[in-house]
Amino acid sequence: MLAKAQWEHLIPHRGAMSLLDTVLDWDDERIHLTATSHARADNPLRSDGMLRALHLCEYGAQAMAVHGGLLAQRASRVAAPGFLVSLRGVELHVARIDDLAGALAVFADRLLDSGTSWQYAFRVEHAGELLAAGRAAVIHAAP
Q: What is the DSSP string of the chain?
């Protein structure tokens, strides 16, 4: 288990926009984290007094960033910055998430690493119930 202080410097997300809390487990291909930011009134993704399930894609993307950062750190490197360029096969099973008590479970599984782009499958659960799932692609930012 890794507390946020052990990995937050590895990703570009800062302050309230850093949505994830704890890495529960990770290896070369996958990562499992928790998040409670969905219930915070200062969540920057909120609009009209709520946080929509669509924003779970950002939770998945941030899980990808943490995974990439941890892999790079283990190899004594710094993760290359990237841009989220594609979401595919996204399934949302709820309309909103700000009314859910307790932590979200966020999972990301690496599907492809070409060196210049990465593809992951992600899913977000709450109390064992699937909230959202999909695939995301990130491309390496030009220097």
A: -EEGGGTGGGSS--GGG----EEEEE-SSEEEEEE-GGG-TT-TT-BTTB-BGGGHHHHHHHHHHHHHHHHHHHTT--PPPEEEEEEEEEEE--SB-TT--S-EEEEEEEEEE-SSEEEEEEEEEETTEEEEEEEEEEEEPP-
